[in-house]
């Protein structure tokens, strides 16, 4: 048995079914809206830092548009070394949204780039305060990750936190970054919502979600090596599903959303309580 509480914070960022009615059909001949900014820099010390809009021309969206880069960034814990902090300073971020709990922040606080405000919106904090279960198998760990994503839909408190984040993102006057610890679960759900409301197709959204496995590959391999050395290969196998992402994790949240609300639009309006103006502000920032 291995307790996720021993190494809890790294995994808490945290499509098999066809939800073509839920997400928009991709635009095959999408054109850039305007001259795009540079791709998000790859940071040696903040390994899962990337642009919500993707790379190159940005992700294609319905209506022959590509998403605007340089608007919203996503990340793991914002703890850059000096060189990476200088790179972040050059992005002129307006706000850093930290989605971690107070306990996670106490372990390692953010280094906020120059000129940026810092906002803490603790998502999943209630679940963390009651403790993290122990797991006896990889299947237990995978179920835990699926349940996390379901809670982003079913838990009223969590919905309120995502509503707060999206409302503040809509009101931002400059580029913003949001992050959790690993930048994959809480951050992944927020990115899913932004890409969905921007009418990016479901396959692209899932591919973007799974990119965390690539960005975190080196650090996750090092973590698993440490666990294997300390507790053995079986313990590392149990813990491995917590470190990365799997399409079934996000799909569990999507399935819960469909069951409870029927569509992303209904979830945003009825579940999160967002008004049409806020949703349109976010869509405009990403697509116009």
- Overall average pLDDT: 89
Global structural class? alpha/beta
Helix content: 40-55%
Number of H- or I-type helical stretches: 12
Tell me the CATH architecture. Answer: Alpha-Beta Complex
Strand content: 5-15%
User: Ends: how far apart?
Assistant: 51 Å
The largest sheet is: 5 strands, mixed
Sequence of strands across the biggest β-sheet:
2-5-9-6-7
Low-confidence parts: 2-29, 126-131
The CATH topology comes to: Protein-Tyrosine Phosphatase, Chain A
SSE topology string: EEEEEHEHEHEHHEHHHHHHH
Q: How would the global form be characterised?
A: globular
Number of beta strands: 9
Instruction: Give the number of domains.
Output: 1
How are the SSEs ordered, and which strands pair?
Elements: E1 2-3, E2 50-51, E3 60-61, E4 65-66, E5 72-75, H1 82-89, E6 95-98, H2 102-107, E7 117-120, H3 125-129, E8 134-135, H4 138-154, H5 156-171, E9 176-179, H6 186-197, H7 202-215, H8 217-231, H9 233-243, H10 247-261, H11 264-271, H12 276-287
Parallel strand pairs: 5-9, 6-7, 6-9
Antiparallel strand pairs: 1-8, 2-5, 3-4
Helix pairs in contact: 4-5, 4-9, 4-10, 5-12, 6-7, 8-9, 10-11
What does this structure look like?
GO terms for molecular function: phosphoprotein phosphatase activity. It holds the Pfam family Y_phosphatase3. 48% of the residues lie in helices and 9% in strands. The protein contains twelve helices and nine strands. Strand 3 (60-61) and strand 4 form a beta hairpin. Helix 4 (138-154) packs parallel to helix 10 (247-261) and helix 10 crosses helix 11 (264-271). The longest helix is centred in the middle third of the chain and has 17 residues, at 138-154. The chain is globular, with a radius of gyration of 18 Å.
């Amino acid at each position: 048995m291995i307790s996720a509480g021993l190494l809890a914070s790294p995994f808490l960022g945290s499509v098999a079914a066809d939800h073509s009615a839920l997400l928009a059909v991709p635009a095959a001949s999408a054109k850039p809206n305007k001259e795009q900014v540079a791709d998000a820099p790859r940071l040696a010390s903040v390994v899962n830092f990337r642009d919500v809009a993707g790379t190159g021309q940005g992700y294609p969206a319905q209506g022959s548009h590509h998403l605007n880069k340089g608007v919203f960034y996503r990340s793991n814990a914002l703890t850059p070394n000096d060189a990476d902090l200088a790179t972040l300073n050059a992005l002129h971020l307006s706000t850093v949204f930290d989605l971690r709990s107070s306990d996670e922040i106490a372990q390692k606080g953010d280094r906020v780039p120059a000129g940026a405000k810092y906002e803490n919106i603790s998502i999943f904090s209630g679940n963390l305060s009651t403790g993290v279960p122990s797991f006896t198998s990889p299947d237990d760990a995978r179920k835990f990750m699926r349940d996390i994503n379901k809670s982003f839909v079913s838990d009223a408190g969590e919905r309120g936190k995502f509503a707060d984040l999206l409302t503040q993102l809509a009101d931002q006057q400059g580029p913003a970054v949001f992050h959790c610890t690993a930048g994959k679960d809480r951050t992944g759900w927020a990115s899913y919502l932004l890409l969905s409301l921007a009418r990016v197709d479901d396959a692209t959204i899932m591919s973007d979600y799974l990119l965390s496995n690539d960005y975190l590959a080196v650090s996750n391999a090092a973590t698993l090596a440490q666990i294997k050395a300390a507790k053995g290969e079986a313990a590392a196998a149990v813990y491995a599903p917590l470190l990365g992402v799997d399409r079934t994790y996000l799909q569990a949240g999507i399935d819960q959303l469909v069951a409870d609300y029927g569509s992303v639009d209904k979830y945003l309006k009825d579940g999160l309580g967002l008004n049409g103006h806020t949703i349109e502000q976010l869509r405009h920032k990403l697509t116009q």
